[in-house]
Amino acid sequence: MKKTETKNQKKECAFPVLKFDYNFNVIYSNSPAKAILNYWEAKVKESVPSNILNRHPEIYNSLREQSLEDISITINDTVVRCTVVPFPEAGYIGVYGYMVEYTEKIMDRETASRLN
Asked: Do residues 87 and 68 make contact, with C-beta atoms less than 8 angstroms apart?
């Protein structure tokens, strides 16, 4: 028997969602974002490594300028496109994935597997 979802239960977003406080500590991660955290070698309740913040200056820019910034996070053969949104009144920065792209390497593997 299938478990039905009640009105009060939220469906989790299929795209990655991360939240950082203004000290760049990870304060939230949904399930799809765990791959990003693993790749970054970061965890919830810990700070994002400085090398990651240096690789994605858009996160700093978003906070400094109080503006939306887009970033691309490359994990192996996948690129996750995200928007960085500062929420000064709430004291955090949100990183919201909106597109996942696969490199040609992945596409070539998919094509080869269909032909075999």
From this structure: no
Rounded to 10 degrees, the C-alpha dihedral 106/110/112/116 comes to 150
- Residue-wise pLDDT for 25-34, tens only, equals 999 999 999 9
* CB-CB contact of 27 with 46 (8 Å): no
User: Tokens representing 23?
Assistant: 């000290």
**Strands lying side by side in the sheet with 26-29:** 26-29, 17-21, 92-102, 78-87, 69-75
- Amino acid (one-letter) located at 83: T
Nearest residue to 76 via CA among 101, 55, 108, 43: 101
> What would the two tokens of residue 25 be?
């500590």
**Residues 33/97, Cβ–Cβ less than 8 Å:** yes
Q: Which residue has the tokens 């028997």?
A: 1
Model pTM? 0.77
